[in-house]
DNA sequence: CAATATAAATTAACGGCGTTAAGTTATATT
DNA sequence: AATATAACTTAACGCCGTTAATTTATATTG
């Protein structure tokens, strides 16, 4: 998994074959199939490792504040930055066409848990009457769309003449929060 | 191109091979290479066709109103709905990892033109002093992130228990516009 | 220690893929 | 009818994910 993760990060999912991974670890390709059902399974397990950390990170960072809106903001920031720091895994879990994500794909994954963690604080904001309305699911998914958008755009379209990264990220977060605030 | 487009739409980019396309049109696989440099070129040209229409659609729809904010809103809506109506092409142009998008990938493509068309109206909003600030590029890219987020999420994660489609789309657009308004 | 059971890894192969080089068939031009 | 050009195909290369059958290494016994 370490070797595979390194290669995915360095060369992107599509350019890493089972044969190359086997080569790198000094085993024959078929050996990998003794430990992972198939390529999708291997990738899936790597991502689970990674996104378990995302959930932790978000939880930790949110506890640094007690203003619900500030918690929300820092959670959104962490999500985006985590995605940009682990572009291969983010791509696999959130961007790539489903063939990669096997059945039960996203539901009951650590990706989902990370998402749930991040948006749990939306409930707090609603309780504190800080938002325009109180449809927690709708607000959460709206926020998710926004932060997923900027994350995937920055990962996938590095060539695009984007405004400075951090400024764009802040702008998205500011716009979203200002858009849902009461 | 017609056959290939149909197959991409029906089975997704990854599951369509040059051999299958050749089969469908009753030619040998190599014949395709007489008309297209490679698979990426074929796909690229199909997408150019499609996104030329998106630019037209946005322009047409925006002309139905003369309130700049309403123009903006209808352009955003059209972008999202177009993406959902042509998920394969949207995926190829905006979602898929770069290997598919050859060099010069997104810049100087009809995808870029569609984007430019959609956000040209941001300038009008700024001129009319309708927005919080006047950094046109920043606002445009922020909006793009938002609408790309919801579009790609809905395309890629059909299984996710999303709130009703149109409601989520409206929520994203409302949040974005309300977030940038003065 | 030798015999055997089990675990770990490999070899060989299948069918698929994108793509290229060389050759063939069909159509147009003289 | 002869030739030039366009359209298309055959055969192959080197990849890919994956499986079945087999071998090698390690542990467990008597």
What would you note in describing this structure?
The structure is a homodimer of 182-residue chains. With 182 residues, the first copy, chain A, is mainly alpha-helical. Chain A has 9 helices and no strands. In chain A, helix 5 packs across helix 6 (87-95) and helix 5 (68-85) runs parallel beside helix 8. The radius of gyration of chain A is 18 Å and the shape is elongated. At the A-B interface, helix 6, helix 8 and helix 9 of A face helix 6, helix 8 and helix 9 of B. Chain A binds a DNA duplex (30 and 30 nucleotides) through residues 17-19, 27-31, 33-34, 38-39.
Helix content percent band of chain A: over 70%
Question: What proportion strand of chain A?
Answer: under 5%
Overall body shape of chain A? elongated
Order of helices and strands of chain A: HHHHHHHHH
Mean pLDDT of chain A: 90
How far is the N terminus from the C terminus of chain A?
46 Å
Q: Which two chains form the greatest contact, residue counts included? A: A-B, 48 and 48 residues
State the assembly state of the protein chains. homodimer
The description of the largest β-sheet of chain A is: none
Describe the structure in brief.
The structure is a homodimer of 182-residue chains. The first copy, chain A, is built from 9 helices and no strands.
Features:
homodimer; 182 residues; mainly alpha; 9 helices; 70% helix; DNA-binding
Chain-wise SSE layout:
2 copies of one chain form a homodimer.
Chain A lengths: L1 H10 L6 H8 L3 H4 L6 H24 L5 H18 L1 H9 L14 H18 L8 H21 L8 H16 L2
The structure holds a DNA duplex (30 and 30 nucleotides).
């Amino acid at each position: 998994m370490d070797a595979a993760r390194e290669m995915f990060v360095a060369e992107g999912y599509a350019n890493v074959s089972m044969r190359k991974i086997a080569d790198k670890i000094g085993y024959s390709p078929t050996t990998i199939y003794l430990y992972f059902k198939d390529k999708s399974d291997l990738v899936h397990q790597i991502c689970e490792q990674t996104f378990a950390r995302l959930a932790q990170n978000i939880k930790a960072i949110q506890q640094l504040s007690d203003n619900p809106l500030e918690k929300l903001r820092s959670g959104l920031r962490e999500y985006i930055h985590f995605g940009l720091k682990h572009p291969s895994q983010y791509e696999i879990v959130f961007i790539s066409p489903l063939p990669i994500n096997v059945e039960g794909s996203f539901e009951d994954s650590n990706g989902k848990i990370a998402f749930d963690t991040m948006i749990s604080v939306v409930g707090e904001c609603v309780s504190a009457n800080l938002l325009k309305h109180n449809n927690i699911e709708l607000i959460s998914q709206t926020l998710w769309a926004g932060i997923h958008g900027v994350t995937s755009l920055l990962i996938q379209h590095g060539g695009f003449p984007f405004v400075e990264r951090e400024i764009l990220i802040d702008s998205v977060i500011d716009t979203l929060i200002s858009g849902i605030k009461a």
